[in-house]
Amino acid sequence: MKLLSSYLNFTDELENCGVLDSSLDEDLNLFINILRLKQSKTPEFKNSYDRINNFFKDIIVLLDAAHNNDDNFCRRAYRLFDFSEVNETNLGFAKSTSGQGFGHTLRKQVISQAFDIVKAGNKQPEIFHLMQLFEDNVGPDRISDMISTIIRPDLEAYTLRVLKELGITRTSYPKLEFDKEGFLLNPYKSQKGKHIRIYFLPTEILQDLPIAHSWDEIDDVISKNEAIKREINIEIGNEWSKYSSYMKKKYIREEIFENQQRCSRVINAYREESTKEIDLTDPKTYSTSPDYYVAKIAKNLNDEHFAFTLKTNSTGGAVNSADPSVIKREVNSHSVTIDMLDYFGEFVYNHKGWELIQSFSTGEAEKFTQRIIDGCCRKIVEENEFDISFEPNEGPGPADIKVSRGSDKTVIEVKLSTNGEYIHGFDTQLPRYAETEKARFMVLLFIDKGNPGRLKSLKKRCDELQFSDDYCPELYLVDARKQKSASKLDFSMGAHYGLYEFGSYFAW
Predict the structure, then answer these.
(1) Number of structural domains, the chain?
(2) Where on the phi/psi map is residue 85: left (φ > 0), alpha (ψ -120 to 50), or beta?
(3) Range scoring the smallest mean pLDDT among 68-77, 234-243, 444-453
(4) What angle do CA 187, 289, 83 make, to 5 degrees?
(5) Closest CA to 313 of 326, 325, 328, 323
(6) Residues 371 and 493 in one domain
(7) What average pLDDT does the segment 176-185 reach?
């Protein structure tokens, strides 16, 4: 993930100005929230909320004048309702460099159904704010694109001011690309063969995407709107759970938004709503988008000169560049793996990585943990001219991580303490993966989320194997339990991450 701050060689300049440190090569799972625009204190966005409502008022006037949903007035409304994805904001769900926006079929659907709502006597522009409640294939990301299109002049005015205030000009950045109006261009995104602009965004107008990638989870949307919940509970109560997603949206459209009294109640309640500013320092904000959080953490750690790597010297040994006094040792896949896991352990325990790991659901936690390791530690591996791969599948079952250079290989299996297969992973899976990969070393990374019984059982099993004739995998422990305070690592009380050996003393 390519961060704007890295592209500009910034540390915390963007955050200090309240500007989002956006990703340039893939979209962030954030969106522009209309209610946040209403509350905005940023000068360029003071009138954005009114600009949006005035735009939809013009569409409503046309629909009100129409006699059917395909006459000239409706066609004019359709032409006005034209929103492609605003790629310059780098927001939404798209993993590639372009997204969907509103296509022809969806625009026709929205205008046709808006016609029915207006003809039922409902002419509030806020109806369009709430489209994801009753329109199929419309969610906060598309609403965000729609809003971005309408307030594009405000986005551009804000961007130009921030560029000027931060001194981001052709003169100060001669190697970067700007357009003739002074906008910084994105080297990772293009349209029609040309790089597109980068829009700077104030964090105060953003929210995290509140529902899953499938907008079929209408219940999650409704849970955030008390007025809609009240109307549904009054009318059908427990029967709601039996409805399909399509039927739920159809019901909301026909029984609430096409009913003048109910629609008025919902819109009036919506007008009284407010929402808190997003907290981009809270790892829970990124539970559905950990890559960005990991990229930010990795950059911050590097900015703080925390990162360390092994460097081969003329004698074939290696030293830890963070501590030149460390005894020289062989550089191999195992030593690089342990340095990588030390880095990961430091991130988890001392840089709030545990909060991110705690926020993951059980089913996705180990996959996301691999992505954290990739984001934070890949540089350590590659700078030592080793390869790192995730789930290399070369036979019966893939190892989670492999560090290798030629025939020198270490395989790593990741197990969180919430995974009941932790013993099986240690003494059965991992040796099988090592045999398949012809790996010289094998390490089980065990991340404790607060399961002391399983930790004790795993240590006991490790002790048994260490004193047997069998080749025992190594056990690397990381403390990812909830912390009551932001205490730092205290070695006098034992380590909170590291290789486990018989008799070694950990703090938990």
Answers:
(1) 2
(2) beta
(3) 234-243
(4) 60
(5) 328
(6) yes
(7) 97
